[in-house]
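Thread title: Can someone regenerate the structure for this chain?

I was given the following input by a collaborator and told the matching structure tokens would be attached. They weren't. Posting the sequence so someone can regenerate them.
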Amino acid sequence: MQNKTKQSFVVVGGGVIGLTIALTLQARGVQVLLVDKDTIAAGTSLGNAGHIATEQVFPIADPSVLKSLPRMLLDPLGPLRLDWRYLLPITPWMLRLVSNMRPRAFAHIHQALTLINAAALPAWHTFTKQYQLEDLVKINGSLLVAEKPQTAVKLQQHGEALNRIGVTNSWLTTAELLEREPLLANNQLGALFYPNTGHLVDLAILFTRLQAQFFALGGAVLEHVNVRSIRQRGPDDIFIDSSHGPLLANNVVVACGAYAKNLVKGLSGVSVPLETERGYHLMLPAETARLSVPVSSADRRFIMTPMNNGLRLAGTVEYAGLTRPPNMQRARNLLPLANPMLRTALNAQGNTQWMGFRPTIADSLPVIDKYENCYYAFGHQHLGLTQAPITAELIAALHFGEATPIDCSAFSLSRFA
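Best answer:
Regenerated them for you:
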């Protein structure tokens, strides 16, 4: 590929958001070049929990969590860790996060997440059918379990509130839960069952197939290419400075997740309050038949997702930035969290450990927007996999001048201008 050849569309970022956008545009006749600093879908997209989490319609920061923060931060098995060396850099973002806990802001964020997640599952259905992914995408529901009496009461109240706004769920007693998932221990006092959620049973195969479809449609890829800056020189004229050399394009999409902040600032002048939540997983290849659907623990704050190549234990939040090495003890900590939830201990033989970067904006909402020939799709926090197909639909609609499937105003870049 010649660097000076002008591309119709360059998508910067080859994770699940960028790849889905690139494939959607290519399928509609747009010539797309997909660029990534690593290999396609090798980062956070590959190591996430694999949960299509349409039930998660509240901001990541809840006022009720504030009183338990000190305990969580001091708990070695806890779901939250802040590296003290990163305290100063993250303080402005944390302050904005806390400000979004105020009732009016919290309600706005909740409404926007409810809106996009309501559209996420239909988008997944369409995407699954279009690309023949039925063997990989399982919409069989998920469980949120409780093992403390007070947690069970709160979950039932939470479930009733969700049902009132159309997020369908039902409460399962211990007996009903164990009938559904007999290998869980009977210390689980019940669970919310969310029927309109799902999971991916093999993320690696999913992304391999999507990339193959992209190539078959004529798409092109540049891997191991670092994009240093993007400049809009005029209508239909984008200049991209990269380690591969200069790239010229009519249109560009910034979809590089946790790495988007500086590119967006240089391109638009807007400083987005984007931070990195480092998440971990422990993959247990010997555990291929323990659960039938994802099981999250409201008390232990992590998730177990059954996949074809094992059981994935995932979760936790660590604030330590993009450059510090991973603390894999946080991945290993997931095993002692999981074992008390099950009738027999998990087989950890041959386990693998992983860490990735969730791109989280202080208001818990992604940026999905267009300004002239520049498009933005980043900051999906824990919901990148969930919201990928609907994000691709929105970007395509913006490009072709069509009515968007949902109102995008809550996801505008200008909210930070």
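Residues 103-130 form the longest helix (28 residues).
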